[in-house]
Amino acid sequence: MDELWPRPSREVADAIRSLCRRQLTETDALVDAFVRPSLVAQNDPALLADASLVEEDRELNRSDLVQWLTANIQQPGRRVEPYVGPRTTAYINDLVSRGIAPDFAVAWRVALGISWRRWLQACVADCADPDLLVEVLDVTAKSLVQYALDSVAALRQAGLAAAMGNTDAEGIALIQLIASGAPMAEDLAEERLRYRMAWWHVGLVLWIDGPQQSDALDEAISAVRSAAGGRSALVARASATSRWIWLSGESVSDLHHVEKALAATDEIRAAVGRPGRGLEGFRSSHQDALAAQALVIRLGSDRRYTAYADVELIDALTKDRAGARRFVINTLGPLAEADTALRQALLTYVQCGFNTTRAAANLYAHRNTVERRVSRANGLSAVKVEDNPAHMAAALLVLDIAPDIVTTDTS
Question: Any idea where the PucR C-terminal helix-turn-helix domain is (predicted)?
Answer without folding.
Answer: 342-395
